[in-house]
Amino acid sequence: MADTKSHSNFVISDNKKRTGSDDFDDSNNFKTIKKQMLFPTSTHDDPAASLAAARHEFGEHGGVNMSIEASATFTVMEPETMRRMFSGELGPDRDFFIYSRHFNPTVLNLSRHMAALEFTEAAYCTSSGMAAISSVLLQLVSSGGHMVASRALYGGTHALLTHFLPRACNITTTFVDINDLEMVKNAMVLGQTKVLYFESVSNPTLSVANIPELSRVAHEKGVKVVVDNTFAPMVISPARLGADVVVHSISKFISGGADIIAGAVCGPASLVNSMMDLHQGTLMLLGPTMNAKVAFELSERIPHLGLRMKEHCHRALVFATRMKKLGLKVIYPGLEDHPNHNLLKSFGNKDYGFGGLLCVDMETEERANRLMNLLQNTTQFGLMAVSLGYYETLMSCSGSSTSSELNAEEKALAGISPGLVRMSIGYIGTLEQRWSQFEKALSRMQDSATFNKY
After folding, report:
1. What's the pTM?
2. Which residues get modified to N6-(pyridoxal phosphate)lysine (predicted)?
């Protein structure tokens, strides 16, 4: 789309395909034709209900699953139509497509699902989570601009804000304790700070952000709130709590298969429009395009995301409770002694639990590595690997892996212990089978001479 202003309403016709002519008569306009919103605003409280109410795209020949539109470019029936598309008069809201870097029907369908999942007006799916994060920040913050961000962030995001954006774009960031509202407020400079950025549940420390209060403080100073909700799809709905934009690494829980890299930006239609602008849009010009075949795969997995999340969260709570009883230092928002337990309980979506990740602090990297080695190679409890949201349990020592971009001082400020083991709890096998495997590994560790704490 060239002039995205003409598409700010984001409406779409029914599923009928264009045939024969590209003409539209005067009656076929936004006011008189009955159309379905491209990204309908959900009226449901449960994200699963919102997903179920989203438009269902059928296949080319009436298949219950949509067809994959694998074309890079799209034909028109009349020469004049192409000019009208590039001028913004005709676009995907009326089933006109130019080129798949702009919009692709299959990717657009996944974007509708992501908007429904996050209760936002619109969404755009990208080639990775980092593509989503960098694109939205570069759209909202210009050269010389300022951001405020949480100290506890995924290492790649921290590196983007700390090193790349200042060097390449003259964009600076002040890092704060996101739980200290006064510190957050004081770090924001009226007229200069454009974005407050944080994770709904921090990676890897599992601190839960007070999204309603943080949004209130930011909006008082005219600052946009961008929340990474990768750790808590279905569990938390940031946009309903006041956030302006929600970003995801779809590669994690939403995919569930550890086989796809993808991301999403969920927010107002005006933001997605601006990011697709032919002259100034980061999504348009940087080209973080999602492949249509990837979008199809993900669209088939989203319908059972709610079921998967409930089981991830259930097992995480059971394991965290049992680990704590064994005397381990466990961090999990579902435990009543977690500092943000009541906060998450107050605004988390009902019946989805407290998240599928927990942390066990073994204090030293040596103890952490020994525990993970036993859990993988002796008892087969899980796998030593980064990422999360897989059906198998994934384990990593965060300080030396996914948070390795932070220096020692930054890790200390973020609360990342050298022996912090992050576990993404899977659901394959029975719960008792997996718990038995954990107990056996811990018993082996307790019997060893190097394990002298427990």
Report:
1. 0.89
2. 252
